[in-house]
Amino acid sequence: MKDEKIVLVENFEDGVSLFTINRESRRNAICSNTAKTLQDEFAKFDMSEQRVAVITGAGVEAFSAGADVDDVPQLWRCIPTIGIKTEKPVISAVSGWCVGGGLVMAMMSDLVVATTDAKFYYPEAKLGLAQGVIAGLAARIPHKVAMEIILLARIVDAERAQNVGLINEVVSPGQHVDRALELARELASMAPLVLKLLKRFVVNGVLPRGPTELFGLASADIDEIAQSEDIKEGFQAYRERRKPIFQGR
Fold first, then answer.
1. Cys staple from 65: which of 27, 83, 86, 131, with CB 3.0 to 4.6 Å?
2. What is the C-alpha separation between 164 and 230, in angstroms, rounded?
C-alpha cells in the first residue's frame, strides 16, 4: 500500500521547519518515494523565507533504518549538500537506530542532536552492497574511527559518537527534537546571509568530496534538466518540426 504523507513538514513562524520521515512501522526506512519527497520538500524550503531545517524520524525507535531493501532509493536525493542542496543550516535530530543511509544523512547535516540510546551503524560491507557516500565520513571524524564504522560495521553509541565528533549533543530519550528545534531557533535569529556564506565556504572549500558525492551532485543537476519544462518543449518542438521556445525552467 502506498504510504500517505511519507514526509511530514511543519513550518513554524520563527523561520524553523521540521521534516519528519513518517514511516515508523518500517523504522523510517528510506524508499524511493521518501528520498524524492524529501528532495522536493527541501527544494520548497530553500525557496521559502524559512531559515533553518530540522530532520528527524517518526517515533523514538529509529531515526532511519537506512535504505528500504524492498524499494531501494536513489539515496543521493535526500542527502544534505547533494540532492538537498540548500545552503541554509540543516540539523538532524536522532533517536534510536541511525543506520546506513540514515547515518549518511546525519553525517552530512550541519549539526546533530542524539538521544542517549542512539546507535549509529553502517552495515553495507556485511550486506554486499554500497552506495559509497559514507566515504565522506573519513573527512568528518578521525580516519581510523571512520574506517572502523565503514569497514568493520561497528555499532557506535551516542557517547562515543559525540567524543569522535560525529554528533554535537546528547540528550535524554524523547528530547532530541525539542533540543534540535532550540538550536534551530538560535540559528534562525542570526544573519541568514552570513550563515549561508559560512556553510558555502565549508562545503565547497574545506570539506573534500569523494567520487560518490560528486556523482550525486552531477545526478542532481542532470535530473533538474530531465524534469524541466525546456526538455518537454525541446521534444515537442522536434515532433512538430519547429524551432523550440525555451524558458529556462
1. 27
2. 47
**Is residue 236 included in any domain, yes or no?**
no
The tens digit of pLDDT for each residue in 129-165 reads 777 789 999 999 999 999 999 999 999 999 999 999 9
CA distance 80 to 195: 16
Domain membership of residue 147 as a residue range: 7-209
Cα 203 to Cα 18, 40, 123, 225, distances in angstroms: 22, 21, 26, 23
Q: For residue range 156-202, what is the model confidence (pLDDT) as tens digits?
A: 999 999 999 999 999 999 999 999 999 999 999 999 999 999 999 99
Number of domains observed in the structure of the chain:
1
Torsion angle of C-alpha atoms 100, 183, 187, 40, degrees rounded to 10: 40
Q: Residue 225 domain-assigned?
A: no
Q: Output the pTM of the full model.
A: 0.90
The DSSP symbol for 78 reads: G
